[in-house]
Fold this sequence. Notes:
The structure holds two protein chains of two kinds. By secondary structure, chain A is of the alpha+beta class.
Amino acid sequence: MALDNLRDLYQQVILERYKKPRNRGKANPIDRYQKGHNPSCGDTIELTVQLNALGDRIEDVKFEGEGCAIALASADLMADALRGKTTAEALEMVQRFQSMMRGEAEFPQELRKLNVMQGVAQFPVRIKCANLSWHTLKAALESSEAAQPAAVSNE
Amino acid sequence: MTFTQARTLAAQTRADFPILDQEIHGKPLIYLDNAASSQKPLAVLDALQYYYTHDHANVHRGVHTLSSRATDAYEGARDKVAAFVNAASRQEIVYTRNATEAINLVAYAWGNANLKSGDEVILSVMEHHSNLIPWQLLAQRTGAVLKFVQLSETQGFDLEHYKSLLSDRTKLVAIVHVSNTLGCINPVEEIVRLAHQQGARVLIDACQSVPHMPVDVQAIDCDWLVASGHKMCAPTGIGFLYGKLDLLRSMPPFLGGGEMIADVFLDHATYADLPHKFEAGTPAIAEAVGLGAAIDYLNSLGMENIHAYEQELTTHLVQQLQQIPEVRLYGPQGSDRAGLASFTTGAVHPHDLSTILDQAGIAIRAGHHCTQPLHRIVKAQSTARASVYFYNTQAEIDAFIVALREAIEFFGGIFA
């Protein structure tokens, strides 16, 4: 089988994060909650975000849910990268990640770990999987409530 | 039939499907997503080409020659559909876009006029969303109550539970013939007989049975039966509703417009006779002609032969899957099932599996297959599904199994 192509997509880091995620669970306290859903495949993700006292900086991000290796590794790497970022920076990162999925951008040195997701751009049908957590984060940060019942759809 | 003969059936038809003769990522295409949509033989493609290059005009209205030819081709295809499912009359076959539209037609035209608050509709938990959502909407409009037949211990249709749900409040039973996820073949004749004892009407979703086995609407005695052309070698955009003649006559129109009228005045109209009452607007003429050609093609192979061959393929597929320890197969575990197998593997998410198999040229489906409630019940967020048609070979199944084992190893090996 053409495993070489697959190793671009399923880099070691992605498979490790899928198998042993570091950011599974719930933030405590929960300042933002958002459920994301990919209706075409059924993948779901629940993001919880802890903010600083001013509400403009991310202290912690955790995720729960079910999905493929790409979706879950993307969520886990995202959570690492967001810790300590301002909400404005985080929203910029959402844009940059989505550009990276179109093959139009990558992250600078200090956020280079996110660049392992670049291989997904070569698999257009899987871009949705990688974007799910970022799409969900955007909705979480743009909401002002800690509990938002409606799931955002990644369509 | 033995595999020697069976190979002959696949070998006999393979050249009719040029789309199958290509490489995907440098590997020969192995198409195992037939439950989602089948490929089209040259006979169907040629029929479309011929129709558009020789006979096309609008149907039922022109006096000129092309209109007459188009009408003959369109109505001739209806005769073929009627004979294919053994309808008593050609007027019992209504063309629709697909099975979904056919179900919606019944839900609106019959459901609105016949259901009231407290009436019960029996479905099963294995229904495709197309045989669930129209009834949810109908229940919201009328106050009717939906009841659901649960799965049996073997993940098939629980006939005993069904019997316990039937009562004089039951007005409609709408059940899938072959589950697109579990592959179980449901006892539709018994389902219909029991429902009729309570005076209830029965709709059968035959999307996964009509393409693969002989289906006889008079033997089943169902009130309606629906199917989609694209799963049975025909183009997309064409399907059909079978309905018993008296019942269709009693139903008001679904969509209004041209083609479905007799006399029109500014404030009222009378409607065309069956089946045109339910075919408003210029229909999918070429697609209907394509459906007729597909039926001719299937008949030339013989539905009994197709069914027998697919049963052998299925038995092989199921046995091979069951030998992989990481694989969990859903639906009946024996060979009493249709030619599709939904499964999960421990380590590899269905989406990842589908990507990996695609690199090996193998097309399978990954997801919830439009049966989200069923997936919740069997506690699978999504499944992978391999589904065969008569042009598939045992060798293709073997190649799929090898690739599946490699995929499991690829993922599993990382973590070992």
